[in-house]
Design goal:
about 110 residues, mainly alpha, 2 domains, 6 helices, elongated
């Protein structure tokens, strides 16, 4: 039981402290420890209204929409035709396989 309590008190920096011994590394570790303990924003602690959250969501959607790279019309038509042809070829292939197997089963059944 003492082992479990000891592991709970262990931080993620304990192993780093044992491995690194020079002063510069210790200063870097101290700096990262301070950065991890930043004060939380008051805005994150307060619950925002539904309208505020909806508006934030809409602004995020608008920003992402502007980042989308739209294809040119020629490429869109070319890829659409290729997709439709591929689907038709696969449909014919599976129809033929189903037809052949149904006739084989009708001969034996």
């Amino acid at each position: 039981m003492a082992q479990v309590v000891k592991n709970k008190n262990k931080t993620k920096y304990d192993d780093i402290d044992k491995v690194l011994e020079n002063d510069k590394s210790k200063k870097a570790i101290e700096k990262t420890k301070k950065n991890d303990k930043k004060k939380p924003n008051k805005k994150t602690n307060e619950k925002r209204s539904l309208w505020e959250r909806f508006m934030i969501y809409c602004h995020g959607v608008k920003d992402e929409w502007n980042k989308v790279h739209w294809t040119k019309k020629e490429n869109l038509i070319k890829y659409s035709i290729a997709t439709i042809c591929f689907v038709i070829i696969l449909a014919i292939f599976f129809y033929i396989i189903t037809f052949v197997f149904s006739h084989i089963l009708s001969l034996f059944g």
